[in-house]
Design a protein that fits this description.
heterodimer, A: alpha/beta, Rossmann fold, 6-stranded mixed beta sheet, 4-stranded antiparallel beta sheet, 10 helices, B: mainly alpha, MetI-like fold, two-stranded antiparallel ribbon, 76% helix, extended, binds adenosine-5'-diphosphate, binds magnesium ion
Chain lengths: 258, 428
């Protein structure tokens, strides 16, 4: 395969919600392999819609998305599930199974590789469990495997979510405001883990972030959305004060804090 | 003052529905009031057979409904929030004369609709043309760019569902016609209720002599039957327990079919949802005592038939509660599980089931509690439990024995109530 095939090739991605609101107005973007792309924009700009159109949690209205050269906007069934497993997702609210153990939560990342019955009964394979413990170790939570996740702190829960994502053996991780529910110190630790995955495990990252300072620190490419359209694409340093004003309008000052 | 742009079709559809609905609601209220009055007057001895003829009401009610809204925003309009505004300027409500003009034209249309039925007779040969004319009037509303009826067009107004600014302060309640209409409707309703219940206040006093000996005997229980009563009470509790426990897994499977957030997305799913909901509501609306009659015939009388009756009713009742619990879960974990590439069954197993287990258990314990209460009377139709004993003693007038049974029923119901509420506190 040619080296220059991007991880994701997005063309004319549009989303019109059933109520007629056009949340994405034709986005074009190439996501190079191994990059860390940060998507910024005011709330309501369409960041969550954009990221969910990539793994088809939301059906795009039109446009195309290619994952490593393979068109994925019309795959269905098992094929779609395979596509989703290669694009793990991290959420603002962690979205863990609250009444289950840390280990079970990590194991759900491997569900695609299980048949109906073993999956329903939780008959996990030994090597999968060992792998899960390894990933928990990687995010510094090895001791907590048997604990129930609702007993953990926000930062710990998000690290469980990262371990669950790794369990999918993903090529891409989509993170929708991964640190918006966390305090600044914890935010940095979670972002550091994500950065480490990008640098050491060759995983491509796309993260929606509300705060520009985080985008500057972690992204090697920044995409700005406004009203469902891409209004900026470049390195973090290329965002001048004027560009910044343009993206955020009157809320610019508030977003710069932190 | 420029003419407003044409409304999209779905907006016109919503308007037509609201206008039709609010006129019908007013008409039904008027017809209801007329029916109440006719009932009261007839019972009072007057010959009012002419009022009872339905074509009368059918014709008069919509006409009166239209005139009602000409005078003041009607109750139907309150419910549907439809108002008339100036055609050119949405912020100005229709004037009184415009409303009257629109209403009179509307009333003439109603008369036109009913004319065929009156002339040809109220058989299908008369009703069919009437229906056609009515459909024609509704269609005319659609064809107009603002969804106006003929009368509204002539009066230079158009309907809207958006709030219209109040131009004048509403008067005190007794100056508003709607207040008096509501009072009249309430008075009529309770008069009719009084009449139909055949309230006999005198009997409460004169009948006391008949009831006093029985009450006296009831309050001096005959403890000699205690042992057999306890046996039957235990039987009752276990009938209810088995019915509730067996209902749990069946209702569990059913409830996912009846949860909108599980079944939405495909036509087949929508159909299954609809059928599941329909079956649940149908089964639930038949009381356990009726189910017991059916099962006594089926498997002969005894505790088993009572258990089956409670089981069937519990499945439907629990499935509905379970479905609602499923519909109110946090969608986050479901989304996360989908994003891992898990199959739909796995998404349900890990994204939904853990969230609904505590409410499901809580509902089931509560059902057990309710089932114990219901099981106490299933014996009246042969469904086993303590009711088995209660019935013959009641018929024989063995009041001290009935008193003993009542004491034990009260104790067990009270205990179940405490147990179930404590258990449910722990679960949620
Ligand atoms: N299900 C939906 N139906 C209609 N509009 C929606 C829906 N979801 C989101 N929107 C709208 O789409 C726009 C973009 O939303 P979102 O992608 O969540 O933005 P962001 O993540 O940048 O805050 C918002 O204006 C939002 O109101
Ligand atoms: Mg968002």
């Amino acid at each position: 395969m040619a080296v220059d095939v991007p991880m994701l090739k997005i063309r004319g991605l549009r989303k019109v919600y059933p109520n007629g609101y056009e949340a994405l107005k034709g986005i074009d973007l190439d996501v190079p392999k191994g990059s860390f792309i940060v998507c910024i924009g005011l709330s309501g700009a369409g960041k969550s819609t954009f990221i969910r159109c990539l793994n088809r949690l939301i059906e795009p209205t039109s446009g195309s998305v290619e994952l490593e050269g393979e068109e994925i906007t019309d795959v269905e069934g098992a094929e779609l599930r395979y596509v989703r497993s290669r694009m793990a997702m991290i959420f603002q609210k962690f979205n863990l199974v609250n009444r289950a153990s840390v280990l079970t939560n990590v194991m759900t990342g491997a569900l695609r590789r299980y048949g109906t019955l073993p999956g329903l009964l939780g008959l996990w394979r030994k090597q999968d469990k060992e792998e899960a413990l390894h990933f928990l170790d990687l995010v510094g939570l090895a001791d907590l495997a048997p604990r129930r996740v609702d007993a953990l702190s926000g930062g710990q829960q998000q690290r469980v979510a990262i371990a669950r994502a790794l369990m999918q053996h993903p090529r891409v991780i989509l993170a929708d405001e991964p640190v918006a529910s966390l305090d600044p110190a914890t935010s940095h630790s979670v972002m550091d883990y994500l950065k480490k995955l990008q640098e050491e495990q060759d995983i491509t990252l796309i993260a929606n972030l509300h705060f520009l300072s985080l985008a500057r620190e972690y992204g090697n490419q920044v995409v700005a959305l406004k009203g469902g359209a891409k209004v900026f694409e470049g390195t973090p340093h290329e965002i001048t004060d004027q560009k910044f004003q343009e993206i955020y309008g009157e809320d610019a000052a508030e977003v710069e804090i932190r | 003052m420029t003419a407003p742009a044409a409304l999209p079709m779905d907006e016109r559809w919503r308007l037509a529905r609201a206008r039709f609905g609010s006129v019908m609601l007013d008409a039904v209220l008027i017809a209801y009031a007329a029916w109440c009055m006719q009932l009261l007057v007839t019972r009072a001895g007057a010959d009012t057979a002419y009022l009872a003829r339905w074509p009368w009401l059918l014709a008069a009610a919509p006409v009166l409904a239209l005139l009602w809204r000409a005078l003041t925003p009607s109750l139907g309009q309150r419910g549907y929030r439809d108002r008339l505004v100036q055609h050119g300027d949405e912020s100005v409500p229709a004037a009184a004369d415009q409303r009257l003009l629109a209403a009179v034209v509307g009333a003439l249309q109603v008369v036109l609709v009913l004319l065929p039925a009156v002339l040809i007779g109220t058989t299908w040969r008369g009703v069919l043309p009437s229906l056609l004319v009515a459909v024609g009037f509704v269609a005319a509303r659609f064809l107009d760019a603002q969804g106006r009826s003929l009368g509204e067009r002539i009066a230079g107004v158009r309907p809207t569902l958006r709030p219209v600014p109040q131009t004048k302060v509403p008067g005190p309640w007794h100056r508003r016609p709607n207040s008096w209409i509501v009072i009249l409707l309430l008075l009529l309703t309770f008069s009719v209720a009084y009449l139909l219940t055949q309230v006999k206040l005198g009997e409460l006093i004169s009948g006391w002599e008949r009831a006093r000996p029985m009450l006296g005997q009831l309050t001096s229980p005959d403890w000699s039957i205690t042992e057999s009563v306890i046996d039957k009470v235990v039987e009752t509790v276990f009938i209810a327990l088995l019915a509730s426990s067996l209902a749990l897994p069946v209702a569990f499977a059913f409830s996912f079919l009846g949860a909108r957030n599980v079944m939405q997305g495909s036509l087949l799913g929508g159909l299954v949802y609809f059928v599941a909901r329909f079956l649940m509501n149908l089964t639930r609306s038949v009381e356990p005592i009726i189910w017991a009659i059916i099962f006594v015939l089926w498997v002969t009388s005894g505790p088993f038939s009572g258990m089956l009756a409670l089981f069937v009713h519990s499945v439907a009742a629990l499935a509905k509660l379970y479905s609602e619990a499923i519909e109110s879960i946090d969608p986050g974990p479901v989304e996360a599980l989908k994003a891992t590439g898990a199959s739909p069954l796995h998404v349900i197993r890990y994204g939904m089931v853990p969230q609904v287990i505590p409410p499901f258990l809580s509902f089931t314990v509560y059902r057990w509690d309710i089932n114990v209460r219901m099981a106490t009377i299933l014996g009246f139709v042969g469904g086993g439990g303590i009711g088995d004993m209660l019935l013959p003693f009641t018929q024989l007038g063995a009041w001290p024995k009935v008193g003993t049974i009542i004491v034990f029923i009260t104790i067990v119901v009270w205990l179940m109530d405490i147990i179930s509420s404590k258990a449910r506190e722990r679960l949620v």
